[in-house]
């Protein structure tokens, strides 16, 4: 048997191997982790993050030609002698097509459309007042529009403002604009982004029924890029609530109650590729643009038609089951049923939002 010191020597790792590990393998692993940190974080999210507490889903009853009194009773409510006034309040960026569909769809039920627009994005980039320069497009609602402008802070060259701070400032400004719009205690207020559209029958139900909850979230069917790509029913931030002295404009969780199947949320539903680029660099999650080629028009076009993620991200899920289920492109849908009626009535104008219309204009 070989002496002990010879056996130990034979087990030593060769110097070249140690050098390879220290100078090549370790730096390569570190660089790989840094480059793909977001993917790694989202891949293991079920291990490090906890889902929010679940909502209490309220059943939503509706069918055409059913009397409103019967619908109110089905929900455990009663019919009012007259409808509540409804104020639709949104902070606007550049979603002109979606805004037109939203306002046309809800126009018969809304008392005032309250819209706040800033001259900067949430990231502090100067931007045109898109709504202000397109007033004629919304002339059909001019008697109902309360429009306010917000002077945002412009970020220093090469830097970005904290998007969540600027977003919070605009929401505070919206609270002030609402109070100058003529809203009164007991009126209904819709708090949502422009692309979170309550269905008309949802608004009508809450407008006409008594004993409804003081505040209720709206479960919206979520679509990406157009109504050809339905994702799920995960959209919950939109709310309708009864206005009172303590009401503040918010886009966060306000109650555990959510009304099922209450409308549509169409994310990144733009007509032109330049509008995609604008939003990708302007909204609160602009940090997801990790490389300049993310903003390449041909890349964006391919991803839209495939139903794939613009930011090359994994799904934001809290269980491995849902994570695996939602990996890859969003399945195409050929259905254009139960969509906003104004969209279907003007299908030629909004072909890009319907099945088969994935190609976008560059201008």
From TrEMBL:
Alphabetized GO MF terms: beta-1,4-mannosylglycoprotein 4-beta-N-acetylglucosaminyltransferase activity
Sorted UniProt keywords: Membrane, Transmembrane, Transmembrane helix
One Pfam family named in its UniProt record: Glyco_transf_17
Domain of life where this protein originates: Eukaryota
Alphabetical list of InterPro entries matching this protein: Glyco_trans_17 (IPR006813)
The keyword Cell cycle belongs to this UniProt entry's keyword annotation: no
Transmembrane segments: 17-37
Annotated protein name in UniProt: Beta-1,4-mannosyl-glycoprotein 4-beta-N-acetylglucosaminyltransferase
Native organism: Dovyalis caffra
GO BP annotations, alphabetical order: N-acetylglucosamine metabolic process
Keyword Transmembrane helix tagged: yes
Gene Ontology, cellular component aspect: membrane
Residues annotated as signal peptide: none
């Amino acid at each position: 048997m070989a002496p002990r010191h010879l056996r130990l020597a034979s087990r030593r790792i060769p110097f070249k191997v140690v050098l390879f590990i220290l100078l090549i393998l370790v730096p390569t692993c570190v660089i790989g982790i840094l480059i793909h940190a977001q993917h790694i974080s989202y891949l293991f999210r079920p291990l490090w993050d906890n889902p929010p507490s679940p909502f209490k889903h309220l059943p939503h009853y509706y069918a055409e030609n059913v009397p409103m009194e019967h619908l109110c009773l089905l929900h455990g409510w009663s019919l009012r002698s007259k409808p509540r006034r409804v104020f639709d309040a949104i902070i606007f960026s550049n979603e002109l097509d979606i805004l037109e569909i939203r306002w046309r769809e809800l126009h018969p039920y809304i008392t005032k459309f309250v819209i706040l627009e800033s001259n900067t994005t949430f990231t502090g980039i100067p931007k045109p007042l898109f709504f202000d320069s397109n007033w004629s497009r919304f002339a059909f609602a001019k008697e109902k529009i309360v429009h306010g402008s917000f002077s945002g802070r412009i970020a220093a060259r090469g830097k970005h403002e904290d998007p969540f701070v600027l977003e919070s400032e605009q929401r505070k400004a919206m609270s002030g604009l609402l109070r100058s719009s003529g809203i009164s205690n007991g009126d209904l207020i819709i708090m949502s982004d422009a692309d979170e559209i309550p269905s008309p029958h949802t608004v009508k139900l809450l407008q006409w029924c008594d004993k409804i909850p003081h505040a209720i979230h709206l479960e919206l069917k979520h679509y990406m890029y157009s109504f050809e790509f339905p994702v799920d029913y995960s959209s919950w931030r939109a709310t309708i609530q009864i206005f009172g002295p303590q009401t503040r404009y918010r886009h966060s969780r306000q109650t555990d109650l959510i009304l099922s199947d209450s409308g549509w949320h169409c994310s990144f539903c733009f007509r032109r590729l330049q509008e995609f680029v604008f939003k990708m660099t302007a909204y609160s999650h602009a940090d997801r643009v990790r490389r300049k080629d993310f903003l390449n028009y041909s890349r964006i076009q391919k991803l839209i038609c495939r139903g794939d993620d613009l930011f090359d991200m994994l799904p934001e899920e809290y269980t491995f089951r849902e994570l695996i289920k939602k990996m890859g492109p969003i399945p195409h849908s050929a259905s254009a049923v139960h969509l906003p009626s104004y969209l279907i009535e003007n299908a030629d104008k909004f072909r890009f939002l319907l099945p088969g219309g994935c190609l976008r204009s560059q201008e």
